[in-house]
Amino acid sequence: MQAKHLKPLRVIISLFFLIVATLIFIDFRHEFSEGFITSFLYFQFGPSVIRILQGFALVATGFIFVLILTALFGRVYCSTICPLGIFQDVISWLSIKLRKKRRPYKYARPHNILRYSLLALTVIFLLFGSIVILTLLDPYSNFGRFITYFVRPATVEVNNWFASFLTTRGIYTLFPVSEPSIRWEIMLFPLLLLGLVVGMAYKNGRLYCNTVCPVGTLLGYASRFSAFRIFIDEKSCTMCGRCNPVCKSSCINFRESEIDFSRCVACYNCLSICPDNAIKYSTDHRKELPEAAGQPSRESDTGAGNDKSKRNFLLSALVMFFGINRFSRATDSDIPEPEQDTKIPEDRDFPAVSPPGSRSLDHFNKACTACTLCVGVCPTHVLQPSLLEYGVGGLLQPRMDFHAGFCNFDCTACGEVCPTGAILPLTRDDKHVTQIGVVKFERENCVVYTDNTSCGACSEHCPTRACDMVPYIGELTIPEVNEDTCIGCGACEYICPTRPYRAIYVDGNRRHKIADRPETQAVDQEVDFEDFPF
User: Do 382 and 252 share a domain, yes or no?
Assistant: First the structure.
């Protein structure tokens, strides 16, 4: 394939990945199957790294595939697969179109101290069992949060407006969709990071990828040893300088005929614009590429010595990293309105409940990168981003918010789409007995006790009969709970009418358990078919 064809091919592939990734996170109608989503996310580097640490599996080999791809062709993941990287390219393209006078890119020295420090910090935190740095900086997860928090709500509003407009004209193709609001304090970090990414991309192209993103830094380092590299043929180069203004990574020093390939994101702009065909992309390297373009590459040089030390440190850290096994509101008309506010707070040992299939809080917190994909596919909106409910280490990871919704008894969607294995797939039968928490009942908060009125909403909505109504006073009945058959779905807490504290609520299990199946009672009544009325 000729070099001039690489850029159009890259644009086509990258737009495909960007559009599909965006639609997956926007998909409030759940049009995409779980199998398609899992297959598409196979190529995402960050989730695949987390998954492979939990044990080898076919779905985790996307990490190996990306490394092989990088070893052969450089950072093509950053240019064609990573949705956040492609999003930055769109911002860069818009910046050129919106400016009256085009401001070209220019060569800049790398910010190696910052980029390698953030990578080392990410690895060190992972070695000590914390995923918080990767959660905050992983490009795929950040892209997911951007779409879920900012784009999806706007899309839902547009859908609902059109649905209302068409309904007035007798057209019912669209229907309104509910979308729960996310607390502003949870959206604060994604909003600040979105501003940082957009600002950097608008002014400096892929500066974020080469200074902040740990995935970009790791793949950039690996690309220094790629089989195919972009380099300048000094014999053919006429020093026209056309390559320099189109390099989004600011890594081409045409005056010294050098390209810092560790920062090159394989956009191929330079290949398509060079009039002399002096920029090559092949295995025929004309020189060893130093750490920073324009620096000497001799082993005896001090800079080379530092480079060698840094290489040994990163390699040893990565060996340690991969050698440690760390993972072993609907309303009912018959529900009474309480006459007074409740006074007794909900006494929970674990206020944050992790989703079914996550096995335990420890497993979930060590594997979830908070990409929000499970939040988007949850049909009852019970999965909501957390702030500090899990602690600082679980920032932004989804939790079961039973004030916002409940876990559908037959639903297994979150485990089917989770790309990191933080939520493992469950069969429907296994889901029916997976106990993520246990029910607690505070009698003095219940409207039956406080207002002497009948209710029973919790019992009616319990799918496992863990909440039953027993005689109380006169004809009144009051809830009685059975923790053994409770699975912690939260239907009782969600429907409970008392405020601000629920009379019945779920206390999370630190490690998920197996609940007892509810006893079934056979019906002994005989039917007299001779007296049957029809």
Answer: no
Instruction: Please check the confidence at residue 484 and state whether its pLDDT lies above 80.
Output: yes
Q: Is the bond into 355 cis (omega within 30 degrees of 0)?
A: no
Burial of 395: CB neighbours in 10 Å, binned 0-12, 13-18, 19+: buried
> Tell me: the pLDDT tens digits for 251-294?
999 888 899 999 999 999 999 899 888 998 988 754 444 444 44
> In this structure, are residues 276 and 236 in contact, taking their beta carbons and an 8 Å threshold?
yes
My answer on whether 191 and 134 are in the same domain is yes
Question: Do the Cβ atoms of 393 and 136 come closer than 8 Å?
Answer: no
The whole-model pTM stands at 0.83
Query: Does 310 score more than 80 pLDDT?
Result: no
235 is a domain residue: yes
Collapsing DSSP states into helix, strand and coil, what is residue 22? Answer: helix
Q: Cα–Cα distance between 204 and 108 in angstroms, integer? A: 10
Q: Which band of pLDDT confidence, cut at 50, 70 and 90, is reported for residue 337?
A: confident
SS3 assignment, position 93: helix
- Which whole-number Å values give the CA distances from 89 to 67, 202, 206, 419, in the listed order? 22, 9, 8, 25
Same domain, 180 and 303: yes
- Count the residues in the chain: 534
Q: Is 455 exposed, middle or buried (0-12, 13-18, 19+ CB in 10 A)?
A: buried
* 304 and 436 part of one domain: no
pLDDT at 303: 44
Q: How far apart are CA 134 and CA 371, in angstroms?
A: 11
Residue 274 forms part of a structural domain: yes
